[in-house]
Amino acid sequence: MTPDKLFSADDRIIEKPMVCQDRVAARFQGRARQVGEEGGCDPWGYEEQRSLTIGLSEMARAPMEERDREPLRRPDMRRFCCDTGARVNDMLSNGTAASLCFASVPKFGGSLFATFKDRTLAVACVTACKGFVLDEWCPAGAADLCLPMIIVHPWDQDASACETGHCAHCSARAITLPNNSPTLGLPSLCSDHRDPLSRACGAADITIRMHIELGAEGWDLPPRSLEFSEWLVIAITASLTLMVGQGCRKPLARKIVSPEDGIDRRLSARERADHQFKHHSLWAEITSDPLPSEICRRNFWVGLVEEPVGFGRWRDNAIDPIVRQINYPHVKTSWSHTRQVVDAMFRSASKVEADAIPFGSAETPLRGRCVEAPFWARALEVA
User: Fold this and answer.
1) Residue 323 main-chain phi, psi, to 5 deg
2) pLDDT of residue 252
3) What is the rounded distance in angstroms from the CA atom of residue 164 to the CA atom of residue 167?
4) Please, are residues 103 and 133 in contact by the beta-carbon 8 Å criterion?
5) The domain that contains 194 carries what CATH number?
6) Domain housing 169
7) E-strand spans in 149-224?
8) Is 4 left (phi over 0), alpha (psi -120 to 50) or beta?
9) What pTM did the predictor assign?
């Protein structure tokens, strides 16, 4: 049975040039803005840093031969990448009835702002990006289609906890955090550093979303020809850190959505982690209760891209909730053939499976509901 609607738990915002400058105090405006053209690019300027929007960030609709990493200027970007209304048309026409987007400018989990020397400027930029998502990006789309996810202050867990509670009242469904915090000079996920934030997320029913493949800054990556296989190692390492780290073993309410994790990778990591815990927990002086596999089932929702083999293994084992990710408008997006991909994968699925993975599993942790009208009718409404 094929599903008639999709919930994407991993899409990307392309911010407007003035996303921070419009919202920070006058004294910060020269240090948080998109600078003029430099060398054929439109870089973002923060403190002494420069950040570019690489071509792979907005490749939906682009022919395969045009896809590369070359930085893009704003005038060269396709309108549907940075205009919410235009994007909604694209997504609804392909069956996507709800979308959770992460910000591009702050990098994953706000890791860019965590590197700032001036913490006051960092806080101002976090507030500006949060305001853009809540006040501009999400309201500009069809009702209930664009769900707010915000960045917090990864360097200050108490402030992040307060911010999470406040944003929950402003319709935020999730916060996003960097998964490899030691590369930012912050405590590991295995520590109790994030306990205040975890408690706040549990109290406000807010999901934590991490991009599980990231954190490569701490790795000595090989040349591009081999880098793709190295991402598998990084993802498994990040998964294991979350499964066995003390942060997730405590009785704190915590829901974590981990796009890019991959079903096969999670299965392999989980199986091995259980084996090690059963054999080594006593002499290592760590508790084996609960097992990593039980933490996965309790705390984690895994991201599914296009992996029919992994999906088959999931069906055989009936493990861990899965959410669908479309990666719009990134180079890895399945748009505009998302419907064909999903239909082929779920052709022999039961109604329970067809309701769960494409949209039902994401509705639970993210407290969102796919729009009920058929996607083609909704597309006409926003055209």
Assistant:
1) -120, 150
2) 62
3) 5
4) yes
5) 3.20.20.140
6) 6-18+84-382
7) 149-151, 174-176, 207-209
8) alpha
9) 0.85
